[in-house]
UniProtKB/TrEMBL annotation:
Top-rank taxon: Bacteria
UniProt-listed InterPro entries: DUF5674
Protein name: Uncharacterized protein
Lineage, broadest ranks: Bacteria, Candidatus Buchananiibacteriota
Amino acid sequence: MKIVNEKISLEEVKKMAEAGFGEMVKAVVNIEKRKMALGGEWHSDAEEILLKDGSLQSDLWGINLYPFRSQEQIIEFSSLINIRPKIGNRTMIVEIPEVRAKIIEIIGEMII
């Protein structure tokens, strides 16, 4: 697993995917600190290293990255850590439009 604070190349993300699930790498994005953790078998693994690094759980959202797909299809907004009924996110999918927009923006800026 790796915490990404700066830009990361698409090629490096592809290598991480190939080393793990093949075509996908799990990621947890901190939408406030604008950083993410990549890798791990579970989103909770990446969530844990970000929490230890000072992130707040309320700022963390799990996604799957498919670096071999087109840019429009690279992000899948699904993770067990996204279930937050108290704030209106009742499923594994990131349903809150503002959160989705922040994730798309952060991924677009960080993966080059």
